């Protein structure tokens, strides 16, 4: 998508990645399947900036993986703030918990192992930020489950909304992920309750503000 040299130039003019996140990136690449799921340097900085701008009390993250984005988002929390992050795969629990602890933020991170679709309905909190980054076929379900738990003016951030440019094609009936992302994108675009932008950075990042 973006010219490689432009990407390198942008990254060289973006705040450097802290050592802890570099270490987490390396360890994820060495030990965990599908390491490209991790947010990575530029997106991590962007998430951190959003969080600092909003100074949220409550953040909900759907899809923890090894904890990279959770650590970035948790930075901007208010002193009494909390990030709830949900992950269905128990195999990543140890590594994520270890890095939450090393980041000094484990007190503020409520890490739940389980299916987000089951856990979210029982959360009785009003969130300032929701980060949707789990199974693509359920993006619209996650949106519908969280929009009423988002404060007015709060934001939903959804990752991978260009889905490797597959959103431009007519997907095969079995391609539930592309269909899921397309449904989500079209629904958000038509939703009068929100203001939204799909940023064509990395794999597509949609920012949605509740009106
Ligand atoms: C793209 S990764 C998350 C990456 C992480 N947010 C980051 O940026 O470093 C998606 C994660 O969602 C998890 N996941 C998929 N379906 C889920 C579900 N129904 N409930 C909770 N987690 C789920 C997967 O196991 C995977 O670890």
Please explain how this structure is put together:
This protein has 211 residues and is an alpha/beta fold. Helix content is 38%, strand content 21%. The protein has one domain: Vaccinia Virus protein VP39 (Rossmann fold), CATH 3.40.50.150. The chain has a 7-stranded mixed sheet, sandwiched between helices. Strand 2 (82-87), helix 5 (93-102) and strand 3 (109-113) form a beta-alpha-beta unit. Helix 3 runs parallel beside helix 4 (68-74). It starts with a helix and ends with a strand. The mean pLDDT is 96. Residues 37-39, 63, 65, 68-69, 86-89, 92, 115-117, 133-135 line the site of S-adenosylmethionine (SAM). S-adenosylmethionine is lined by residues 37-39, 63, 65, 68-69, 86-89, 92, 115-117, 133-135.
Task: List the SSEs and their pairings.
Blueprint: H1 4-12, H2 19-31, H3 41-54, E1 58-62, H4 68-74, E2 82-87, H5 93-102, E3 109-113, H6 116-119, E4 127-132, H7 139-146, E5 150-159, H8 176-190, E6 194-199, E7 205-210
Parallel strand pairs: 1-2, 1-4, 2-3, 4-5
Antiparallel strand pairs: 5-7, 6-7
The protein binds S-adenosylmethionine (SAM).
Separate helix tally: 8
Note the overall shape: globular
Q: What's the story with the biggest beta sheet? A: 7 strands, mixed
CATH class: Alpha Beta
Q: What spatial order of strands do you see in the largest sheet?
A: 3-2-1-4-5-7-6
Helix content: 25-40%
Strand coverage percent: 15-25%
Number of strands: 7
Catalogue the unreliable spans: none
Q: Write the CATH architecture name.
A: 3-Layer(aba) Sandwich
Report mean pLDDT, rounded to a whole number.
96
Radius of gyration of CA atoms, rounded to a whole number: 16 Å
CATH topology: Rossmann fold
Q: How many distinct folded domains?
A: 1
**Backbone structural class:** alpha/beta
